[in-house]
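Exercise 7. Given the encoded structure of a 175-residue chain, write a plausible sequence.
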């Protein structure tokens, strides 16, 4: 991107959106949107405050309707790794088991036996790449969604929509 547009400001965000598509074209909002937004640091721009100012201006515009909680992040990669602790593990586990995040938590054994060890791998990878996440991040991300909402992560919604997990629409018996 910076090779093609060396002087452009690029913004980067990590979104936590509790929405899914019910029927085609019907978007259901089950929880308030949360967005962490900041500048994707362009090494060609000498003054980082110019990038940060653009991010803060976008936040002001995006937040104007009051439908999202947008927070400025001066470290978007950290926010991305934080989200990946959940998305890289719970998203596929929920799709495979067909359990929403609340029911997954209620089992206890899936969380302790599968989710937490896999999340620890993501945590260690982030740490090895210089992203210092808090020690309690795994429990924080597991408990992030309110228990009474029974939210299905996007992968579970998508897999149920196309019916692939039931093997009726994807043409394969082995997954």
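Solution.
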């Amino acid at each position: 991107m910076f090779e093609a547009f060396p002087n452009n400001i690029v913004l980067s965000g990590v979104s936590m959106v509790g929405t899914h598509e019910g029927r085609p074209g019907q978007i259901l909002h089950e929880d308030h949107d949360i967005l962490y937004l900041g500048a994707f640091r362009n090494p060609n721009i000498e003054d980082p405050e110019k990038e940060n100012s653009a991010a803060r201006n976008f936040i002001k515009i995006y937040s104007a309707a009051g439908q999202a909680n947008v927070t400025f992040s001066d470290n978007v990669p950290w926010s991305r790794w934080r989200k990946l602790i959940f998305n890289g593990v719970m998203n596929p586990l929920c799709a495979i088991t067909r359990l929403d995040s609340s029911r997954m938590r209620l089992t206890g054994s899936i969380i302790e036996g599968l989710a937490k060890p896999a999340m620890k791998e993501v945590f260690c990878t982030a740490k090895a790449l210089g992203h210092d996440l808090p020690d309690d991040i795994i429990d924080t991300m597991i408990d992030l969604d309110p228990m009474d909402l029974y939210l299905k992560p996007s992968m579970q919604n998508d897999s149920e929509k196309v019916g692939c997990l039931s093997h009726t629409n994807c043409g394969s018996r082995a997954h």
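Remark. The chain has two domains: 1-74, 77-175. Students should compare their own answers with the one above.
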